[in-house]
Amino acid sequence: MLVSGLLQNRNHISFEDNNASLTDRSIAQIKLGNLICVIRERYISFLQSTQKAVGQLKVMTPKILLRIAVVIILLHNIGHTLGHSGWKNAPDEVNRRAIDAMTSNEFMFMGEKSTYARFYDGYGYAGTLTLLLAMILLWMLSGAQSKLSKQLAMVTGLFLVSWAIMEYLYFFPLAAGMTLMAAILTIWSASKMTGAQ
């Protein structure tokens, strides 16, 4: 407020710098003061909006949080399944050679002929089923309020965190980000569960 008054009445202010009206230094001080006021006003506005958001977050029940996590995992699972089902369609020659090597080189594994493409298919389908299991488990937990459901939600959330780390390290950030969002929602819901018997 003082700086605003200085800006409005700057023609009536005398400064000690050689009794000059407005030196470069005093102009810079006024601009800095004005900037501080603007930052302060924006910070107050930010705090007020954050306070409103926090108030809205309090209405997020464990059921809602888990159902949102289920929707995120569902979208992730659809993307995973569609992406995995078309992995043999090579976009370029380098990928084509890698796919050919994976599908054509057979070897014995546990008494059966196999290929790396077969392993890759199996891992992809196992991932689809694991995400499906996580969805079903979270949906079932969203309707329960017990000590066991709280514990299962926390364990499932930690499992999803580890799954997200694995996806980040071995696949790509979008998949990891979706799983991490679901994990955060799951752990948050577990922390909000009452654990009533």
Q: Helical element count?
A: 7
Beta-strand content bin: under 5%
- The residue ranges in which pLDDT falls below 50 over 5 or more consecutive positions are 1-20
Strand arrangement within the widest β-sheet reads 1-2
N-to-C terminal Cα separation, in Å?
A: 57 Å
The tally of domains stands at 2
Radius of gyration: 29 Å
What is the arithmetic mean of pLDDT? 82
The gross shape turns out to be flat
- Along the chain, the helix and strand elements come as HHHHEEHHH
Report the helical percentage.
Answer: over 70%
- Backbone structural class: mainly alpha
What's the number of extended β-strand segments? Answer: 2
Describe the sheet with the most strands.
2 strands, antiparallel
Q: If you had to describe this structure to a student in words, what would you say it looks like?
A:
- There is one protein chain.
- By secondary structure, the protein is mostly helical.
- It folds into 2 domains: 2-56; 60-192.
- Helix content is 75%, strand content 3%.
- The chain has 7 helices and 2 strands, in the order ααααββααα.
- The protein has helices at residues 2-8, 24-57, 62-85, 93-104, 116-142, 147-170, 173-192, and strands at 107-109, 112-114.
- The chain has a two-stranded antiparallel ribbon with strand order 1-2.
- A hairpin with a 2-residue loop joins β1 and β2.
- α3 (62-85) runs antiparallel to α5 (116-142), α3 packs antiparallel against α7 and α6 (147-170) runs antiparallel to α7.
- The longest helix has 34 residues, at 24-57.
- The two termini are 57 Å apart.
- Residues 1-20 have low confidence and may be disordered.
